[in-house]
Amino acid sequence: MKIGIIGAGDVGGTLGKRWRQKGHEIMFGVRNLQSPKVQKLVQMDQNFKVGDISEAAAFGEVIVLAIPWTSVEETILNSGNLSGKILIDPTNPLTPDLKGLALHDTSVAEKIAKLANSTRVVKAFNAIGARTLDNSVFDSQRADLFICGDDRHAKEVVEELANDIGFDVVDIGPLVNARKLEQLALLWIELAFKQQMGPNIAFKLLKRKDDF
Ligand SMILES: NC(=O)c1ccc[n+]([C@@H]2O[C@H](COP(=O)([O-])OP(=O)(O)OC[C@H]3O[C@@H](n4cnc5c(N)ncnc54)[C@H](OP(=O)(O)O)[C@@H]3O)[C@@H](O)[C@H]2O)c1
């Protein structure tokens, strides 16, 4: 699959590397082609394509917005025609002190859907650390990846992409539930940093099959 990843930092770079290992075609959309992060990725794998934001957005059937949430509006405006594309939103609207969320009664994912006039936004990869994107297995257990969105086909595609890199997917329903996933990211940050469990943690939903 052709995947355009806007942002080549911890989340974008790691997802690009993992999907490339599974044979997907990756183009990073960046502001500065010469930045050390971008150059490191290109040296790691010469099959990585790099362009500006509109080039990566045009390239991908799936677009990942691996950027700060404050850059989302500008990025969507610079992305050109996004109709029909699946937009993955891993961002979190954290306050600068990382103690809370800067958005209330909405979510970044819902804002993206409005800005891009798209129903194919999927919230995913936001309540998990970048290290776990690189290695999703804890002993013999795969980490869960919580996703939500309004388009069933878009969620199926994201589920396949997540399965490819070793995640079990839990679909938590419509895009409005991105508000809950952004809260879940706050819990992850609390546990990892304030409660000092470290970034090698991930959530797992337990289900009893015969009980419902
Ligand atoms: N790190 C994690 O463990 C983690 C986990 C879950 C979710 N997230 C979320 O995922 C997103 C990315 O996080 P990250 O850790 O990958 O951040 P990061 O390492 O700081 O990388 C951010 C990337 O976004 C680019 N960028 C910043 N502003 C931009 C703009 N206006 N236009 C285009 N590109 C821009 C940066 O490019 P430059 O190099 O040019 O600045 C960089 O490539 C954030 O919203 C974060 O909240 C992070």
Gross morphology: globular
The number of domains: 1
CATH superfamily annotation: NAD(P)-binding Rossmann-like Domain
CATH architecture: 3-Layer(aba) Sandwich
Q: How large, in whole angstroms, is the Cα Rg?
A: 16 Å
Tell me the name of the CATH class.
Alpha Beta
Q: Residue ranges: pLDDT <50 for 5 or more in a row? A: none
- Could you please say which CATH topology applies here? Rossmann fold
Characterize the biggest β-sheet: 8 strands, mixed
Compact summary:
This protein has helices at 10-21, 36-44, 53-59, 72-77, 108-115, 130-134, 152-164, 178-194, and strands at 2-6, 25-29, 49-51, 62-65, 86-89, 121-123, 137-138, 141-142, 144-149, 168-171. It is an alpha/beta fold. The N and C termini lie far apart (37 Å).
Please write out the topology.
Elements: E1 2-6, H1 10-21, E2 25-29, H2 36-44, E3 49-51, H3 53-59, E4 62-65, H4 72-77, E5 86-89, H5 108-115, E6 121-123, H6 130-134, E7 137-138, E8 141-142, E9 144-149, H7 152-164, E10 168-171, H8 178-194
Parallel strand pairs: 1-2, 1-4, 2-3, 4-5, 5-6, 9-10
Antiparallel strand pairs: 6-9, 7-8
The structure holds NADP nicotinamide-adenine-dinucleotide phosphate.
NADP nicotinamide-adenine-dinucleotide phosphate is lined by residues 7-12, 31-32, 35, 37, 53, 66-69, 71, 74-75, 90-92, 126, 128-130.
